[in-house]
Each structure stands twice: as structure tokens, then as C-alpha cells.
From TrEMBL:
E.C. numbers: 7.6.2.2
Organism the protein comes from: Streptacidiphilus fuscans
Pfam annotation, one family: ABC_tran
Any one biological process term the GO annotation gives: response to antibiotic
Lineage: Bacteria, Bacillati, Actinomycetota, Actinomycetes, Kitasatosporales
UniProt name for this protein: ABC-type xenobiotic transporter
Amino acid sequence: MSATPAITADGLQKRYGAVQAVDGVSLEIRTGEFFGLLGPNGAGKTTTLEILEGLRKPDAGRARVLGEPPWPRNPRLLPRIGVQLQASAFFDRLTAREQLAAFAQLYGVGPRRVEEMLARVGLGEFGGTLAERLSGGQAQRLSIACALVHEPELVFLDEPTTGLDPQARRNLWDLLREINADGRTVVLTTHYLDEAEILCDRVAVMDHGRILRTGAPAALVRALDAPTRITVPAGALAPGVLAEARAELDGRVEITEDEVSLVFSTRDPAPVLALLTEHGALHGLEARGGTLEDVFLDLTGREYRE
């Protein structure tokens, strides 16, 4: 991975009426990096991407993409970037192959590359299928193929796995890893925190148009110092033993129990594990440390957003 930035942004701002969609966003994304932009609905992620892609003019601030200003719409950048929008729309009554060929022709790319890309994204046998008849996962793969057919250096992906079933998501992850392994810089927005934690070298968490925290997912999780959650089946400890444990561990361990699980939340798991071992209650034990989701909720809150 090169230390040279693929993207720099300094003080980007964008307002829509009374709504400050982007409020002083500054970030740097390295060449070859897999970078995630995370945030709740309305955080400003898509508007930030659209500014970087040259689709929207910022009200203030400065951006450079591959060393070039993205606005005014920069024809020197167009062959060097690929964009997969949040909502993809294909031409009516065209097959997957015809859709991809239409995009390829815009960049002067020949039919051989079209066939290579169909195979690359796992659509080789579906090239003759009308785009509207593709499954959700297949349509997303076609959308990404359209963004990649001209072999761009930098790829923007706006929530590419939204609405996909778990198998389709995992298959798409493999494709995204391959794209990045080719040396391309990938910028991803997603609401799936496990996805960002697995795929991204670094992430930025934003809300209300501002970047709140940036770093490698593992580093952000360590900095949060979230408690370890140790879970065993409900009833694993006799009521008397559990009552004694509550008294002995009070202040150090939070203990909750429902009809399914007995959960110990603590930053010092050793006494809990010793207790469970002593009483033969290790069957079905699960232990989970902090995750990127914990970081996200700590920074942005837990209230529901439309």
C-alpha cells in the first residue's frame, strides 16, 4: 500500500436548505487502501462521496482525487475512477452483456474486456439474461462490473451489499477483496459493521455531517475498552450460587439473565470464568469482546434514525 494519498479532503461543506449535510469533513485516503465511511442514515456519507466523485459541488472546502480536483466535473478523472451508486438503474430490455458493453463503449473498451468482466464477477453464464431478471446479488455484481470495466484506479462503492442475503453478501465480499488485492483503492459506505470490520484497512465514523473518529477497526475497538460479554445458557448456575455471585462480584460484573441466556459483562473476565469452571457451567459458553458496532453506537448513539 502506497503512502501517497488517493484522496484528500479539507473542510468540505454542503448544505441543502436548513440541513447541513456535510459539515467540515476532512480526511485522507491512501493509495491502495480499502477505506470505509460509516454512519447512520442522514450522516452525510453519500453526499460526501458525491462530492469526491465530482457529482456535487461543495459549498466550501477543497478536495483532491488522484491529484486532481473533482469539481468542476473533471474529464481527466473519469477514466481513472469507477462509481457504483447506492441505487443502480440499468437500461430497459438489455441483457447483462449489453448493459456492460454500453458502459464499456463510453470508455472505448472493447468486447473482450466485457467478457472478462462478466466472468470476473461470476456472471459469465448470465450474460444473455435481461438485467431486470437477475437476482439481487447478481444485479449488484453487474453494477460493480460496470464500475470496473474500464479498469479504474479508484472505486467508490455506496452500500453495495444492502438487501442481499448472507450468502450473496459473502460472495460479494470475496469480489471486493479481489478488487482491492489488484492494487485498486476502494472507498466503501455500508451499514453492516461486520462488513467494514472484515474488509476495511481503516474506517471513518461520521454523524451529522462530521467525521467523529478515524482509524483501523481493531484500533478503534481497543481504544473503546468495551467490556467482555460472557454468555452461558439460562439456569447454568443454581439460584443460590447466582445470588452469591451477584453479591461477591457486585461493582465489577454486570449480570443479566432472561429465559435463554445468563450474561456477565466485565472488563475482568477471570473471576467469572473461575466461577463457571468451579460449578461446571462451561457448556455452551460464548465470550465476545468489543466490536466495531460497539464503537459505532458509542459515537453515534443508539436512537433509531429514519
